[in-house]
Structure formats: C-alpha cells, structure tokens
Design goal:
It contains 14 helices and 17 strands. It is α/β, with parallel strands linked by helices and 426 residues long. Bound molecules: pyridoxal-5'-phosphate. Pyridoxal-5'-phosphate is lined by residues 109-111, 139, 141-142, 188, 192, 217, 219-220, 240, 383.
Length: 426
C-alpha cells in the first residue's frame, strides 16, 4: 500500500521572520502548471474546493490499480489489503483532528454528515416547543436540515445574529441558552462568506453547561488551521474531504461516543447491521452503524494521503501561510476603488478568504472579468442566502486561498479587478 510521502515544501526565508507566506508547495499540485488561454492558472477558489497534490492523486490511483476490492466482506488477500487501507485511512484521518477512529464516520460530504445528525439524533431528541439554535452565518448545509427537522417536529428554529464586524455574540448565546429550551446549537467554525473564525471552544463549553448538544460545521476550518476536535469539546464535528486537498465523495463526522451509541442509524442496508431477520435487524458497532452500503473506500485512501500531506506541512505553518496571504489580500484589495470587504477586518480573526462587492459592477461580472484573466474566483450567494439578506446584498465575489497560493496570485487578482473596473468605465 502506498501512502502519501513528505511534500516537497521549502520554507522561505520570510517564514522565519513572519513577514510573508511560509510555504512554497505550488510544484506539488500538477493542475497549477496548467495555462488557460495562454495565461497561468491563478486559483483563488479553494473555499469551493481545493486542488489536489500529486501524492493524493497517486494514492487514489495506486489504490485502484493495485489494492481495489470491497471492504468488510472478503477473506482473500486483496480484500484484506483493501480493508487494511480503509481502516488505516480512518485511523490517520481521525488522528489528524485529535479524534477517535471508532467515533469517526465517513459520509459523502459535510452536508450528509449534518443531515445524519439532524435525522438520526434530531428526530429522536427534538420535540414540539424545543429550540434548535443556529447562526446567521451558516451555509445552507447547516440551515436546511434544521429547518426540515423543526418543521417536522414542531420545534422552533432560532438564530444567533452576526454583528457589523461579522462576528457572533457570546452574550446572545448565553441569553438564548438561558431560555432553557435549546436542544441543539449548530454553527460554523469558519464562515465561508465572512471568513469569521467563531469562538468554538467557548461556545461548546456554554452549550454543554446548558445541557444542549453542539454541532460544528468545520468545512472551512479543518483544511486551513490546527483543529483538535477533543479540545474543542463539540458533541459533533463535521467536515468535507474535497476542501482539504482530498477527493470529492467523502465527508467526515466525529461524534461523542455516548451520544452515537444511543442513536438509531441514519441510512440502513448492508454493512451497518449486526444481524438481519425477516422482520427486524440489529445494528453494527460504531462507526459502521452509520455507514450503510459500500463506503467511499478509494476516497478514504485519498483523504488519508491528503491529511498526511497536510500533517507533514504542519497545520500551524499552513495557518501562518494563509493568514499572511489573507493579510496581504486585505491590504491589496483596499487599493481597489469602490471595493468593500465583508467580515472581520483583521486577518487573524478570519480564515483565508475575502468576500467583497465593488460599486457599479455586479459580483457575477467581477468573477467573469477575473475569469477572462484566468483568475478563478467565485460569485453568488455562496449557499448562504440568509446571510446575504443580513448583509443587504444579493451576492458577493469571493477569493479564497489554499496552501499553494502565493502573493503573486493576489497581485493577479487585484490587476484583474482594476482592469475590470476600466471595462465598466469606472
Ligand atoms: C461552511 C460550509 N459548510 C458546508 C459546505 C458544504 O460542503 P459539501 O458540499 O462538501 O457538503 C460548504 C461548502 O461550500 C461550506 O463552505
């Protein structure tokens, strides 16, 4: 079995001074050698999905070429290799965020992980007059499952507000919890629009003390900063592989064992059972109880290689690199007339992204004009329509960085934005 090897990272001189990005790993990502219409690719859309290093592509390919078999069913050598690769991937993925393999469930993506909790925990534990508390900065993946749950169970869905700086208020959380009827609080670790890093550990401690359950959407956090699920103390923590340099088709849910043991399964069928009779069935042990059907085997192997790669870089250095790039991005975006960035003004209070509007140009036109220069950014509501309403905009443009970005990518973005304003006669 092959596993990811050490990345070809080279620390730059600036890393030690803290003056600039700490990583130089562009060469590890084959796609970044591409040109589009004769221009080098400037990829600033890691918030949507990350690019993949060669070690991940190779691990996926090597698994499919040499070790492919279904898991948990075969006695022959190849099937045992596939079993070992899958189990080993779970062990490394759990360890990457300080979690236990037994309580680390593979899903299709973070969306499915949140739905798993909303269905399997929510339907059994949320009743009429209970409250599910979420925040105004959530992605639809962390809104709609709770809307459905509350509608079905006659519960109330309430929101923590986002202030002018794009931050949440612990005082408001305390006030909501003091109502005594909050059953679950679900919130993002990092907002995919504002970039806000929420005070996860403070929030989970208060939620726990109030007797409620916490669920954190870590989709925009795990790929970009050190995350220790047990230190954070959430009851559930979910993230998605494709934003963390891994393949699509795999998400991860970490849960508290005592809660997961009491939960009924989410989906049912093969693999998640212990025994099936004509009229009834009993459930497999954790984590298999929550993994019905053939799981994402090759995807787990690929994500295992991705977390090995990130671990070898060191998540503290990843964060240092991206924070320096974000500070540079905020500084350079301020040079563009009429441009307004939403979210916390300080790079240290946000993840590696900036959402913005430009007076006189629709965000979709901004992204389109950037695209003409091979600068890949996203525009739209970013699956956060309620937040857009709070911000008083229909859409924003969003540039988001990854380990492979460099200051020159930010320069290319700013050049494209300035050229774009000229196209609009601004
Ligand atoms: C904060 C957040 N939550 C959830 C998601 C949904 O991720 P997935 O489509 O992989 O389930 C995203 C993706 O954009 C996100 O940024």
């Amino acid at each position: 079995m092959t596993h990811a090897t050490i990345p070809s990272t080279r620390a730059r001189a600036s890393a030690s001074t803290g003056a600039g990005p700490a990583l130089d790993v562009r060469a590890d990502f084959p796609i970044l050698a591409r040109q589009i219409d004769g221009r080098p690719l400037v990829y600033l859309d890691s918030g949507a999905t990350s690019q993949k290093p060669a070690v991940v592509i190779d691990a996926l390919s090597e698994h499919l070429r040499a070790h492919n078999a279904n898991v948990h069913r075969g006695v022959y050598a190849l099937a045992q290799e596939a079993d070992a690769a899958y189990d080993e991937a779970r062990r490394r993925i759990a360890a990457f965020v300080g979690a236990e393999p037994r309580t680390t469930v593979f899903t299709k993506n973070v969306t499915e992980a949140i739905n798993l909790v909303a269905y399997a925990w929510g339907r059994a534990n949320v009743g009429p007059d209970d409250v599910v508390l979420i925040t105004q900065l959530e992605h639809h993946a962390n809104i709609v499952p709770w809307q459905m749950l509350c509608r079905e169970r006659g519960a109330q869905l309430r929101y923590l507000e986002v202030d002018d700086r794009g931050e949440l208020s612990l005082d408001q959380l305390d006030a909501e919890l003091a109502r005594g009827d909050v059953r679950l609080v679900a919130f993002s670790h990092v907002s995919n629009v504002l970039g806000t890093i929420t005070p996860v550990a403070e929030m989970t401690a208060r939620i726990r003390a109030a007797g409620a359950i916490s669920l954190i959407d870590g989709a925009q956090a795990v790929p970009h900063m050190p995350v220790d699920v047990s230190a954070i103390g959430a009851d559930f923590y979910a993230w998605t592989g494709h934003k963390a340099l891994g393949p699509t088709g795999i998400g991860v849910l970490h849960g508290r064992a005592q809660i997961m043991e009491r939960m009924e399964p989410f989906m049912t069928g093969g693999d998640m059972i212990s025994a099936v009779d004509f009229q009834s069935a009993t459930w497999n042990e954790l984590p298999y109880k929550f993994e019905a059907g053939t799981p994402p085997i090759a995807e787990a192997v690929g994500l295992g290689a991705a977390v090995d790669y990130l671990s070898a870089l060191g998540m503290a250095r990843v964060r240092e690199h991206e924070q320096a790039l974000t500070a540079y991005m905020l500084q350079r975006l301020a040079e563009v007339p009429g441009l307004r960035v939403v979210g916390p003004p300080e790079a240290e209070r946000r993840g590696g992204l900036a959402s913005f509007t430009i007076d006189g140009i629709h965000p979709h036109d901004v992204a389109e004009l950037c695209g003409r220069e091979s600068v890949c950014i996203r525009a739209g509501h970013h699956c956060a329509q309620p937040l857009m309403r709070c911000l008083g905009v229909g859409a924003t443009a969003r540039a988001s960085v990854g380990v492979y970005n460099e200051p020159s990518d930010i320069d290319a973005l700013v050049d494209a934005l300035i050229a774009g304003r000229k196209v609009f006669g601004l």
